[in-house]
Amino acid sequence: MSEAHHAAMVPLRWRTDVKARPVRCDPPAGDRTDQLVTRPSAGGRLGRVSTDALSIEPLTIPALIDGPDAGPFREMTELRNDIEASIVGSRDLAVSAAGLLPEYQDAWIDKQVHVARLGDRMVGRVFVELAQEEGARTALVEVEVLPEFRGHGVGSALLAHGEAIAAAAERPVIEAYILHTLGDPAAERVHATTGFGDVPADDPGVRFLTARGWTLEQIYRMSRLDLDDGARRLDALSAEAVAASSVGYDLVTWIGATPDEYLDDLAVLNARMSTDAPQGGLEIDEEVWTAQRVADLDARTLRGGYLFLSTAARQRETGRLVAFSNMYVDADRTRPAQQGDSLVLREHRGHRLGLLVKTGLHRLLAEESPQTRVAYTFNAEENRPMLAINEALGFVPAGYQGVWKRP
């Protein structure tokens, strides 16, 4: 049982609530790919857009969000927020530039974002993520373009740019986590190869990728919870979870950075997110996690101004953590909370530990941030155990994230 996240959200690890690595997005470039900057030839045309005006360049990641070089990063953050709002119909998934910046400062994964400009205006971006584990074969390449600039070749140019970066890194497998609208259930749909879930065939992202032969390997359901409604269900669900897990397990909670005594266990749990979460037909590079990597993730989260809430199930016999769940609350506590990772180790399933850590997390959220009224989460459609927990908590579908694979 696991939960994961959404490429375009942050912190990046949210993508594991989707698997995602979330939401897990957005990330840093640097000047290492300058040689790949796209400069279309003069005289060509992209629909009504002159290619003379189109450029694709790496985004410089500032050290500080209030630094003199932070303007383009702030502009990219607004671009990201505008594009996601056009898909989900609200700004619930919007993030601040200050909250986003630390995720572009992750030393454990090569994360790049390159932006497309028409003249002086930023109109799209491509995110590239390259795992750094030895033998890694995959790259994430995700394209986003403002609605009014689609259909002019900007997305195609960004995709080619991202694919070139992946090829230079010798990554033969290219995948993408793309947000999609709910759409009309009665209209034509594209089904995932897992057999679980579908997305609207007329969704712009679906049209873009199917036209290029990409395969929809998996679907994550984006779900929204009205926490006032969820509160009415929480007592009974908590009692059920405690009763089922009381023989052998205890709930532990913490706020902020992971306590030192739990860092090694969290390293194991995070690593297992890359092997135990539902993967459909995707190729996933197994991640290497250490106590230091967990501590670094926590530090980045806190630098972003997030209230970081965590729960875990501890096995009494061994004292080890065998399940966990976490949640991020924006510096503006009235903003929607975002579910992060959730996982129950395979060998400890069947004791309602998923329900234990999730209900404990929602209780902790109510105590620490009562002004937060909405929460979001992402789950693989084939992950029925975790979906059942979230549905019991009151989550309802709000959109989809398709996980696509290039042929």
UniProtKB/TrEMBL annotation:
The keyword Protein transport does not apply. The keyword Transferase applies. GO terms for molecular function: acyltransferase activity, transferring groups other than amino-acyl groups. This is GNAT family N-acetyltransferase. Residues 23-44 are annotated as: Disordered. Keywords: Transferase. InterPro entries: Acyl_CoA_acyltransferase, GNAT_dom. It comes from Naasia lichenicola. Residues 71-240 form the N-acetyltransferase domain.
